[in-house]
Amino acid sequence: MSAPITAKAEHSLEAAENQGYQKVLKPRQIQMIAIGGAIGTGLFLGAGGRLATAGPALIFVYALCGFFAFLVLRALGELIMHRPTSGSFVSYAREFYGEKMAFAVGWMYWLNWAMTAVADVTAVALYMNFFKQYVPVLVGIDQWVFALVALVLVLAMNLLSVKVFGELEFWFSLIKVLALVTFLVVGVYFVAFGTPVEGHVVGFSLITDNGGFFPNGILPAFVIIQGVVFAYASIELIGTTAGETEDPRKIMPSAIRTVVVRLLVFYVGSVVLLSLLLPYSAYKSGESPFVTFFGSIGVEGADVVMNLVVLTAVLSSLNAGLYSTGRILHSMALSGSAPAALAKMNKAGVPYGGIAVTAAVTALGVGLNAVLPSMAFEIALNLAALGIVSAWAVIILCQLKLWQKARRGEMKRPEFRMFGAPYTGLLTLAFLFGIIVLMAFDYPIGSWTVASLIVIVPTLVIGWFLARERIAAIAATQGSAGADRPIL
Q1: Residues 6+ apart with CB under 8 A from 366
Q2: Could you please report the per-residue DSSP string of 376-412?
Q3: Phi then psi dihedrals of residue 176, to 5 deg
Q4: Exposed, middle or buried, 389 (CB in 10 Å: 0-12/13-18/19+)?
Q5: pLDDT, tens digit, for every residue of 153-178?
Q6: In this predicted model, what pLDDT tens digit does every residue of 352-397 receive, in sequence order?
Q7: In angstroms, rounded to a whole number, what is the distance separating the alpha carbons of residues 425 and 396?
Q8: C-beta separation of 207 from 54 below 8 A
Q9: Mean pLDDT of all residues in the chain?
């Protein structure tokens, strides 16, 4: 591995990455984006099918993944304190490992969000299918039409300005959080006072009388782990917002600390309550478990309201995905890892090129909804998981490199840092590798997803050789500092 970029080159890249952005995101927006960004389709839709497959064991899987998501977030927090940038971990990969690493992780992260966007528009379509029983005029509309309308709507909002994005995401996220708080309050009330749901008694007996925590065995509980990791995806989005935040070094530590606690309460707490309120067999793939629950309590229209909430949640996730990929591709274009056109911004400071590319791929996902409507969500989710694992692994690797340089006296670690380094980082890397292994056992979609690396890896290699001359040329324009940046 060649040496990292020099301080001068680093400063040049950082300035270029942040140039043109409008630093208008407020603390309340950052807090809510950080919380709401990770409360999305994976929980609101994906938890239903996974409860049906794994049973109450899903509680342990969510807790396990939540712990490692916390470690990833702390590692990212240390990197942000080291150097806030809208390039996020792609920029840190470039700084600590060189352009080759930045190129690979940048495109893998883009794959994550592109596939997440496909999963999101698919979820919108599935949620709209729910309303067909109440609105007859919707019956004749195909699933792909709902997906297309959602994409066009969110794309238009994302292109306006980061101020619009921040405010929109604040309210989207607030609705999600309030909905989950409402569910937690209602669920705790039902469990505490023994209120029956659909004629059965709620509580721990629902688990013990229906096969225990592992009704279908241990392996089915853990081969779905990629779907749970997908549910926690977006926690890294807080790193992307750093370049458009007022005083990020002051705001980010507080945002990260509060996010971790709230996510564990929302995620693990929600799955615990879902397991105590209905038998795991009551949940099903393709329907939000929250809608399933509220549809079972006998309150007229409760399931309809909840379905509107989860529809808002998935629009929020799609909104965040377009935002994130636009910034990541902008950073990559500036270094030459992506076409130069993707670095362009409009007058409002929005990198519209990268957003448009992601939207175009999402449009292909609309086609997937037309061809394979029943499998579109799971296919997109599994491919997204590959990108998430790659991104989280690089965040940990960059933090480990920062720790190593600090040990050598070459850098100073910030006060807000990854605890237990380097051991917690190494443990996280082992966990992420284990996800890929388990994914291979999830036949057929998971197995085919891992097999897709046979295509993805050579594509990245070919892309690197096509782009490296452009990357070298851009480095050369930065003078002697740029010349020291690792290229080959």
Answers
A1: 121, 144, 147, 148, 151
A2: HHHHHHHHHHHHHHHHHHHHHHHHHHHHHHHHTTSS-
A3: -60, -45
A4: buried
A5: 888 877 776 777 777 778 887 888 88
A6: 888 888 888 888 877 877 777 777 777 887 888 888 899 999 999 9
A7: 6
A8: no
A9: 80
pTM, entire model:
0.80
Q: Is the pLDDT of residue 19 over 70?
A: no
For the chain, helix, strand, coil in percent to 5 are 75, 0, 25
Token output for 115: 């596939």
How far from 336 is each of 314, 346, 359, 481, 486, CA to CA, in Å?
A: 33, 20, 21, 16, 13
Closest to 39 measured CA to CA, from 77, 71, 80, 69: 69
Query: Rounded to an integer, what distance in angstroms lies between the CA atom of residue 196 and that of residue 205?
Result: 12
Total residue length of the chain: 488
Distances (CA, A) of 192 to 185, 204, 273: 10, 11, 11
Token pair 């659909």 is found at 198
Overall fold of domain 7-483? Amino acid/polyamine transporter I (1.20.1740)
Q: What is the DSSP letter of 14?
A: H
